[in-house]
Amino acid sequence: MSASHSPSISPTHAEIYKIPVSVLVVIHTRQLDVLLIERARQPGFWQSVTGSVDTPGEVLSGTAAREVAEETGIRIGCDGVPWSALRDWHLSNVYDIYPLWRHRYAPGVWKNTEHVFSLEVPARVSVTLAPREHRAQVWLPWEEAAMQCFSASNAEAIRQLPRRLMPGNSK
Q1: For every residue of 56-97, which 3-state class applies, written as one string?
Q2: Average pLDDT by consecutive 10-residue portion of the chain (171 residues)?
Q3: Which residues does 126 contact at the CB level (< 8 Å), separation at least 6?
Q4: Which of 45, 7, 14 is nearest to 133 (CA)?
Q5: How far apart are CA 112 and CA 93, in angstroms?
Q6: pTM for this structure?
Q7: Residue 115 CB neighbour total at 10 angstroms
Q8: Which is deepest, 21, 44, 47, 143, by most CB within 10 Å?
Q9: Are 35 and 24 in contact (CB under 8 A)?
């Protein structure tokens, strides 16, 4: 494992840096309505659920379930949302970390690898946002949701949703 993929301790702060491996979870209904949440500290930044791996050995599906619960209150395996509703697309995007968030990562870490998942919920379920992270939520038809996303990889994942969910298609 390279130094850029393992947590580091800052010699001056004893701060643990974020691991540059994350998940993107597109939450949707069978009718392809998509949940978007607005970042609390960046008004106008609408996105799907995202979050980083907490520890080097954390399984990506576990990261996805943890982030969905933390950011929306939706618990996979409960509330009519079975584990089978979480789909790993086996798709990853590597992108430059936004300058706004680079301080969270070890010095010299500029790239993040994002793994894409989708989660089908039975309807436009009500969500409980984490107020320190998000300020608003909205359910939109997939085309509109893709246009609202600030992240190009998030918008592209939403645009792929209809094709990815066709019976027999995992890619």
Answers
A1: CCCCHHHHHHHHHHHHHCCCCCECCECHHHEEEEEEEEEEEC
A2: 42 71 97 97 94 95 98 91 97 93 94 97 92 95 97 96 79 55
A3: none
A4: 45
A5: 8
A6: 0.86
A7: 20
A8: 47
A9: no
